[in-house]
Amino acid sequence: MDTIATLAAVTDAPAWRCARVEELDALAAHLPALPLELDPRWLATRLDSPGKSLAVFVLDSSGAPRGYAPFFVHPTALSYCLGEQTLLTVPVRRFALAGAPLADDEAALAALFPALHAAVGPRAVAFFEGVPRDSALAALLERPSLMQGLFHVIPYGPCYPRRLITLPEGAGYEDYLKTLGAKTRQDLRRTRKRFLTTAGGEIETRRYRAPEEVEAFLDAVARVSRKTYQWHLLGLGLEATPALAARLEAAARTGWLRAYVSFVDGEPVAFQLGYRDGDTYYAHDIGYDPALAKLQPGIFLHTEILPDLLADGIRRFDFLVGDSLHKQRLSNHAREERHYYLIPRGWPGTPRAWGLTAINALSATLGSALERSGLKARLKRLLRRRAVEHATTPDEA
Q1: Mean pLDDT computed over 100-112
Q2: Using alpha carbons only, what angle is made at residue 44 by residues 316 and 228, rounded to the nearest 5 degrees?
Q3: Rounded to two decimals, what is the model's pTM?
Q4: What's phi and psi for 144, nearest 5 deg?
Q5: 86 pairs with which residues across the strands?
Q6: Which residues does residue 96 pair with via DSSP β-bridges, in sequence order?
Q7: Which of 1, 184, 236, 240 has the fewest CB atoms within 10 Å, measured from its CB?
Q8: pLDDT band at 303, cuts 50/70/90?
Q9: Burial class of residue 28 (count of CB atoms within 10 Å of its CB; 0-12, 13-18, 19+)
């Protein structure tokens, strides 16, 4: 009998439960040092509307938790996409967890899924973001027989390397450069020099980490974000909303916020929103003015940020999920990760899962064919350029 079926059938099997909100502070005191993405205080900063909540699952044992799995619950949509084009969206409630739950062994981890299935119900979905490929969670998710009667497990996108910068204690910026290839070191120095000499005007990079600095940061970010293809083509980007301002102010009060903006003659041209947790910096959002793309303002900003972070005790720079040439060039370490959707079996989950599996397979096949022909990169550049060129700014309206 499979592990999960055994655990569900035996009366003394490990039993996970949803913790009450008032338990969270006491619970955190019994847990090891939590990464930022699993810290209930961090997750609480995202509860900026009535439709959002936390579902924190705990596996108790003699007063100390053997397992801990905090899910951010929020309304979203299952997107059925061909490449960057969305064909259909289905509104759902999503239980999302970044990384992997904390559990003391594989059996304890496997026992989470019946409790998660009961909490999710037939119409919501679960989403595991950035699961390390060498983790116990990945091993369980890659064995779909363990989910029989519970979930369809659907990998969301291919495996990708999560890029990092890791440095020993006391390392400085020159030590970081020595960990990169000779060509990358030369490119970084050349890019920085070129930006400083040809961007024009006075160049300044400002750091933001106090609650009273959030408004100025968001004002600068919005002025950059509205010029990017992500904003016009994908509807993505940062906007100075009250909800985001409140979230950043909360992060600043806890000491997490570390954000940066580069200016040329007082005009913002590149930004980085990130958070510090211990000796790790999480680089969440980056953007730059596409008019300066040839000068690589994002790379220039990196050369401004990293010396400041290293001087402040940072030893690990996390580029977070996804991969890009930018991350490949600047990192010196990587680990393999993958995203997974867990969609409940039955109605309406099963047809949703079948549809998502089919469209993902078609998208991957077409993407591979376009990539082999060289058309994929050309189409992306064309769509992104047109999205920016044809956009109407508020001043033009």
Answers
A1: 91
A2: 65
A3: 0.85
A4: -60, -20
A5: 81
A6: 72, 127
A7: 1
A8: very high
A9: middle
> What backbone torsions phi and psi does residue 22 show, to the nearest 5 degrees?
-70, -10
The C-alpha atoms of residue 261 and residue 347 are separated, in whole angstroms, by 48
- Give the pLDDT band (50/70/90) at residue 389: low
Q: Of the candidates 175, 153, 202, which has an alpha carbon nearest to the alpha carbon of residue 315?
A: 175
Closest CA to 304 of 382, 384, 213, 203: 203
- Residue 295's nearest CA partner among 174, 203, 217 is 203
Residue 16's H or E segment, with its range, is strand 16-18
Res. 228 pLDDT band, cuts 50 70 90: low
CA distances for 153 relative to 2, 82, 344, angstroms: 16, 20, 9
Predicted local confidence at residue 312, as pLDDT: 95
Three-state DSSP class for 70? strand
- Reported as half-sphere exposure (CB side, CA atoms, 13 A), residue 122 has a value of 5
DSSP designation for 102: E
Are 35 and 277 in contact by the 8 Å Cβ rule? The answer is yes
